[in-house]
Amino acid sequence: MNEREGFSISGIPFLLFLLLLAIAGAALYYHAGIDRMATYGAVGVVIHAAVVFMLKGFFQVAPNEGQVLQLFGKYAGTARKEGLRWTNPFYSKQRLSLRMRNFESGKLKVNDSDGNPIEIAAVVVWQVIDTAEAVFCVDDYENYVHIQTESALRQMAQSYPYDSHEEGVPSLRSHGDVINSHLRDEIHTRLGKAGVEVIEARISHLAYAQEIAQAMLQRQQAGAIIAARTKIVEGAVSMVEMALDQLAKRGVVQLDEERKAAMVSNLLVVLCGERGTQPVVNTGTLYNG
Asked: Rounded CA gap, 56 and 105, in Å?
């Protein structure tokens, strides 16, 4: 079932018409002669009754709002033109907001693709685009959006690791754009039958579960230390290489292989050490032994 435009006309001109009709009915009733009182009086009463009944057909449509019209349970269309409108008085009307809405899911506890328990939550921005599907294809479209969002979030979280251990492999923590795009598509697919479009979906909370949070923190710290040490060693080796090369080019000192090895060792200790080193001044010959 898809949305279609329902019958409605501008309410202001029709309201003026009913007002004139009511005035005419009143004039007909009160100014009829004695001999015509029964006939014209009855006509005036019928006109007034018809005017009162047709007043039931008036309704208002606010901006970014739709009114779903039904005739004895049958879908008759949706009125989206804003302002005062009039339609068949027998139509029942249901108001639906077409504005963009957002909500944040609760924190879900799920396992990532590596089996690690994590806590995850998401913010979803959505709006109704098909009022007929939203009303007639699902029982409660707002509740449907919330439940299907949590289901899609669980499914998505189980497809990725929290941290990537291989270069180029997307993870929940490091590839936000990929994860958010996947989550949006996953939710949009589930909500397509409810007349709802997902504008945006993004992760709002991501953390390891409490029972493994401390262990994972130590693991992350160890990884950071290793990465930092790797950088330090690479830099230190480059500096030692540059120092030996400059000494050789400028002819400052001639070193044999054993003295080069000692110098490399000392420089690496100085450059890679965590604490400041204490210099020792050699006042003797270079080859004191």
From this structure: 41
